[in-house]
Amino acid sequence: MMTTNLSQRSLSHPITLLTRLAYGVGDFGPSMAGNTLMVFFFFFLTTVAGLSPDRAGLILCLSQGWSAVSTLCIGALSDRTQSSWGRRRIWLLSSAPILGLSFWLHWWVPPGGEWLRFSYFLLMALLFQTAGNAFTIPYGALLTDLSDRHDEHIRLNGFRFGFSLSGCILSLLLAQGMDRWISQPQQRVFNLGLIGAIVIVLSILSCCWGVTEAPSIHSQVQPRNESPQQALQTWWQLLYNRPLLLLAGIYAGSWLALQITPTLLPYFIVYCLQRDSSAIPQLVLLMQGTALATLFLWERLSQAIGKRLVFWAGTSLWILAALQLLDLRPGQTSLLYMLSVLIGFGMSTVYLIPLSLLPEVAAIDEQHTGNRREGLLYSVLVFLQKIALAIGLLFVGQVLASADFQQAVPGPIQLVQPTSALAMIRALTAFIPVLSLLASLWLMSLYEACPSLSMQKQLRLQLVRVSSQSK
C-alpha cells in the first residue's frame, strides 16, 4: 500500500491575507446567484411563471439529480486536470460565463403554454447546475491545495463563507430595492438576474487572479487514464471509507435544512403569516445576516472547544427555533424576528463546520492511497447533498399539489389558499429542516466516536481488504 509522508507536503509559502481574500471572494457571486434561486425560484415558478407546484418541484428535482451525477464526473476530472492554470482554476475560469448567462435567463418567462415554460426552465436549470458544479467542486477542493493546516482550513472557510453570506445578503438587499423601484414582479427578478450574472463573472475572475495553486504539494495527481479495474477499485475504496461516508451524510442533512428553509419561507410568510411578499427578503436577510455576524465567533469557539461541539450547539438552537414555527401566528412579529435570529445562529455552524472536516478525511485517504483526491472526495459530499435536495424539493412540490395549493397564472401573487395547503406549508417549513438536522447530529455523533487514529487504522484495514479482493 502506497503511503505518503504528509510532512513533506507542507507549503513553502505562508497563506497571506490577500490569498484568503481572493479565495473567499470567489464564492461571492455564485452564492449571490444561488441564494436568489434558493429563496425566489420555486416561488417565482408557481406565482409568476404560472407553473403548478408539482411541475415546479419536478424541474428542481431533475436539475438537482443531474447536478448530483455531474458532480462525481467533474470531481474526478478536476483531480486529473493539468494546465498552466493548475488543476482547479482552469475549471473556475471556464464555468464563469456559462454560470452567469444561465442564471440571468432563469428569470425570463417565455410566451406559450405551461409545457413550453416547463421545458425552458428545466433547460436553464440543467445548464446552470452543470456550470455551477464546474465551479463549486474545483473551488471546494482548492482549499486543501492552499494549505495542509487544519486551523488554516477553518480560517479559509471563514473567509469563504463570510463572502458567501455577504453575497446572499446583497441579493436580498437588491431584491428589496427592486420591490421599491419596479412594480412588475417579472421585471424585478429579470434585472436582479442581470446584476447577479455580472457579479458572478467578476468574483470568479478575481479569485483566479489572486490565488496561486502550489503543485509541489501534491504527492501524486490521479492519472488521466485509468483501467476499468482501477476505476472500480477507486469507487470501492470510497464506499469503504467510513469517515467520508459519515461526513457526506452530515453535509447532506445539514445543507438540506440550509437550502430548503429559504425555499419554503416565502410560502410560510405570504400565506401562513399573511404578510406582503416584501417581507420575504427581510426575514431571510435577518437569518443570513445573523449567520454572517456569528461566523467568526463560531470559528473562534471551535478552536477552543472543537468543531463538533460547535456544530451540536448551533444546530440545536436551529431545531428549537424551527419547532416554534408550528405555533407562530399572524401578527407575532417580534417572535418571528427572534426565531429568525436563532435560525441564523444555527445556519452559521452549518456553513462553517462540515466542510472544515473534509481536509482531515482527505489526509487519511491520501495517507493510505498515495493519491490527492480532494476533488473526488468533495464531489461525493456534494453528490449526496444534491440527491437529498432533489428528493426534498420533489417531495415539497408533490405534497403541496396534493394539498390543493393554488398556483397563480403569470401576474400578481395570489394570497388565498385552502386550509389544507396552509397546514401543509406550516408542517413542511418546520419538520423538513428539523428532521434533516437531527439526522446530521446523529451522524456527527458517530463521526465523533471515531478518533482520528482509529479512523486511520480502520480505513487502512478496509483498503487493504479491498485491494486484495480486486487482485
UniProtKB/TrEMBL annotation:
Record-level GO BP terms: carbohydrate transport
Residue ranges of coiled coil: none
Cross-referenced InterPro entries: MFS_2, MFS_trans_sf
Keywords: Membrane, Transmembrane, Transmembrane helix
Pfam families: MFS_2
GO CC annotation terms, alphabetical: plasma membrane
Annotated TM spans: 21-44, 56-78, 90-109, 121-146, 158-178, 190-212, 244-267, 279-297, 309-328, 334-355, 376-401, 421-447
Record's keyword annotation contains Chloroplast: no
Molecular function via GO: symporter activity
Protein name in UniProt: MFS transporter
